[in-house]
């Protein structure tokens, strides 16, 4: 198995000089409906559903048992229409499910029910805001409904891959999870910004589905999965180059890196006179590279035909208009409003966007934190840990916990230093900030009698300092304050200690 | 043979209600009859002796408490093996599902149980309902009770033979291109394919989803109607199930029988199915039936259905296409036969299992359907077939402007000898020429006996067809025709069937705990 680590890469700028990149994206969004797309089984992509026990969330339809029949989840249709509208698409008065036939053990029926030539939503555009604030328009080809497949676990091989495995286990919990697949048209003219546009596009889709409340949209959990298509064509060539499809790139950062990598890899091959193989590629987070998957040709024959077990989906005009009226403001409008509400400067706000923590910040504020405090934490300590670990900040800690942490500092229970310590422990999974403070006894000591005892002891052991303070040399108090803070293991408010030291010295 | 088994379901229900017979007695009588004739007929793949008696006892107890679930409570019923049953293997006549017990009941089965009917067992069929003779069953052919050397029709030959041989008063079948009606015709019984969507397909092991329909098999039109009333109606588990409020089919049958007249009924003879080229005795009895209907006041008109000549071709593209997809699930991964020689890949195990588990007709149609759906052929085959389907529907719409019901012989011939067509798929396919159009159009169709062909003494069936959703019309007209003919014959046609059976086995056979799959 090629790991891609040996790929020859061309310098990015040189690649762009010689070739024009053309991008395309297929983003799969897992809808968070209570039940699955075609069965009454609980949906593992819904909030709070535990899917840890394999094959515990399955109905006969999901297993492809003989005689079982699919029934369309009306809520999933509503979610899909809302998403289509938010993508600026037209909603088809009649759309249809089809069967995509292929044999694979994670596919209970050995066909996937998906929309093929009659998707529910088509022809839209998405405005994407780039890091410098410019807007980029991504053309949307279609958004269609389909069902997810199960998951295979390969056992006995060294790599967890099918090659060399002794046997494989199938978990159908994910089979039948409602998906909307959003397909872009080819994106031309991205040039040097191709990786940035890729990242911003997926981030925008994530923001849209979050604002609609139709998906948990956690990339690390597979709620949102991006397949990135990249092709290059020599400058001046009309015909599109052969594309590769890098599958399941599961973080915003990886989307950016994978697109950059494919541009550099393909450019090196083309420049050396080679040809690009039309294939799927796997993204490897650890090596930051892609490797060959299975060959993919436009002639793949899935023997599509209209799903005879289901009627066409025919949403009423009234329903479409009802959903249109209920659309939340677009993420762009939402951002403009938040910036004004929070009183952030353009620069401050851009930092928030670039760190990808706007949604987290907004939620933190909605839980009661001051915007400036929320910004300080998300762009400060949390972002620092995230960068250190190469993960998205939002995966480290919940906005609720951040707001709790801020509240604890605001009411004086935690000093800044203590709060950072608590955050580390919350990130380490020790519980909520309140719980960590309780369990570890990290609260600021605000009991004056304890402080006074420590101060009296410090003053008694440093009579020269005491004398200096009494003589009016107030700055001498620093030595005593230091000793007291040390005795309190830092869990005291230094300002209060200072007040008390001066008070006791005069006593 | 106990007199109990001669009763129709309606008669049995009356006796059960009157209390002069118990469900246990009725069930035992049918189990005894099964034991007596099964060695010759082989209508059943599984006989649920103990379970049936237990259920019958329960129904008797409920009835004694005044809590009989329905008028038909306690009446035994046979179930085609294409329908999923919680407590009995459901194989669809295939080796690939040998011994598979589903975790759910098909909706029609669940409704029969809820109404208190007593399942006797599962009946034989062509593998996955592909065939017109039961000879493609992986478990051996069923024999026609009228002549054991002949086919009972198919695919539902087991249900038809069971009812014709008095092993069950009523049965369930499924009809994709004639699998209820053609067996009814060649066994002298009644069979109805309801309007598509009239009866839930949930739990019916799919052959061709857009054509399949579950329906009743019986000895009288009224009995079919009684079963139809129980199994029909909307089911939220089947997206193609109609949400209509349906009139009582039994009421329609009773009205038809009582009226005894067809005055004002326009009966359309479909020119393209009028029997030219059909067996002489079939044509003769069909002509006589038309005459009888005219005498009873019907207005006989000829209607044209010019596109019916393409119906078989279209059917044999649509059906295999859908079947090739529906049968993909039989891959040994989750259920069913697995052939695993060890050290082999998933693909190899899937291929070997399907190679061993499917019979020749199934393989033939899966290959045909896969081809018809292939890129580059889709438009020419599947696409064109769907266009023909639309044209057939239009033919029906036009024909029903001139006639209230349409008629034809139910099948071109009487029961042919076992083995005659098993190696000639095309000849076998042509046997469905009369029944296929109704499936393509989704309209209801019924077959009822109209006599014996003079040349071979075997039953001939009349097919009645009505517009979609007008199933009740079939029962009304069918019951009138049935009453007129029986008045002429002086007895039901089946009273002329030859005696069956061998020396009666020891008492209690069929009630042994191992009344299992054979």
TrEMBL record, chain A:
GO MF annotation: an example = asparaginyl-tRNA synthase (glutamine-hydrolyzing) activity
Asn/Gln amidotransferase domain sequence ranges: 359-505
Reactions catalysed, semicolon-separated, are: L-aspartyl-tRNA(Asn) + L-glutamine + ATP + H2O = L-asparaginyl-tRNA(Asn) + L-glutamate + ADP + phosphate + 2 H(+); L-glutamyl-tRNA(Gln) + L-glutamine + ATP + H2O = L-glutaminyl-tRNA(Gln) + L-glutamate + ADP + phosphate + H(+)
Identify the keywords attached in UniProt to this record, alphabetized.
ATP-binding, Ligase, Nucleotide-binding, Protein biosynthesis, Transferase
Q: Which InterPro entries match?
A: Asn/Gln-tRNA_amidoTrfase_suB/E, Asn/Gln-tRNA_Trfase_suB/E_cat, Asn/Gln_amidotransferase, Asn/Gln_tRNA_amidoTrase-B-like, GatB, GatB_Yqey_C_2, Gln-tRNA_amidoTrfase_suB_CS, Gln_synth/guanido_kin_cat_dom
Q: Which residues cross the membrane?
A: none
Q: Superkingdom of the source? A: Bacteria
Matching PANTHER family: GLUTAMYL-TRNA GLN AMIDOTRANSFERASE SUBUNIT B MITOCHONDRIAL AND PROKARYOTIC PET112-RELATED, GLUTAMYL-TRNA(GLN) AMIDOTRANSFERASE SUBUNIT B, MITOCHONDRIAL
What does the sequence similarity comment in the record state about its family? Belongs to the GatB/GatE family. GatB subfamily.
**Subunit info?**
Heterotrimer of A, B and C subunits.
Indicate what this protein is called per its UniProt record: Aspartyl/glutamyl-tRNA(Asn/Gln) amidotransferase subunit B
Query: What is the originating organism of this protein?
Result: Amnibacterium setariae
From TrEMBL, chain B:
Superkingdom field: Bacteria
Which residues does the entry assign to the active site, renumbered to this chain? Answer: 80, 155, 179
Alphabetical list of PROSITE patterns matching this protein: AMIDASES (PS00571)
For this protein, the Enzyme Commission number is: 6.3.5.7
Which reaction equation describes what this protein catalyses?
A: L-glutamyl-tRNA(Gln) + L-glutamine + ATP + H2O = L-glutaminyl-tRNA(Gln) + L-glutamate + ADP + phosphate + H(+)
Query: Which parts of the chain are coiled coil?
Result: none
One Gene Ontology biological process: translation
Q: Which family does it belong to?
A: Belongs to the amidase family. GatA subfamily.
Q: How does it assemble?
A: Heterotrimer of A, B and C subunits.
User: What protein am I looking at?
Assistant: Glutamyl-tRNA(Gln) amidotransferase subunit A
UniProt organism field:
Amnibacterium setariae
